[in-house]
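Two entries, shown back to back:
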Amino acid sequence: MIHTVKAGETLVSIAGDYRKSLASLIAANPGITPYLIYVGQSILIPGFPPSASIPYSIRISISNRTLTLLYQGQRRKVYPIGVGRMLHETPTGNYIIINKAPNPGGPYGTMWMSLSKKGYGIHGTNDPSSIGKYVSRGCVRMYNKDVEELARTIPIGTPVSIRP
């Protein structure tokens, strides 16, 4: 998987976002100077399939509070979601699903899927009344049955686009 460096990122922060060691990123990118990366530079992230090889993608609309599952670019299903509240907004940008954890407990419901932005994910909820609202600390909340269905459908590495 290729990551394109954005303003403010460091190789250390990129490694953290993808839950990879700095050493693994350096090894996967021969010739890279770890503390001299630049905006627009392509960084190979080891252990994830190329995004183009995955037929699924996810498009999240914060304002509509919907998550749309696409298959080969065609809408397959639209799910209602809860998103970040004021001062804890859901981050916009392009990410991938980097792991899945069933039954994480607490407010995360029956499934957690980490985004390639440290601290954020798509998860179930122990409060179904929060779906459709601006209530989270930045994560995307789904009904448990919906997030379980989504997790069964998509592979690790699925691209996720979050827009206002």
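entry 2 starts here
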Amino acid sequence: MSVKLDPSLFCILVLLRCHFISGISEFTDPCTDHNGITDEQANNAFKDWPENLNLARVNKTHKCYVTCILIYYSIVDNYGKISLDKYFDNGSIDEYAFAPTLLRCRYEYRKETDLCEQIFGIFNCFKQEKLLSGKV
């Protein structure tokens, strides 16, 4: 059994495929240490997060370090997709209270193409919201 594909439909499918491929940035792994990150290292990176942090003053190495911690703990993947289902499921994070902040922060950094800049920016946005609301 063979299926004949309409040439115009085929062209549209090829164009869509090319658009999605070109829209996805090339995979770059910002994490050089694949041996793991200790809980102590992770906690130290997030301890005493400064209020009103000026992102322009944070060096890229630190942004990537924080991103790697979030990747290591499966909070985000190597493509920037945030996955908090396990935290929602076990009740650590109230999904309904968290969703508006997450959506706003993701929207704010939607055009950022650098993974470290994007993930650090989203995380900082969320932390700033928590600091302002006093729920750190």
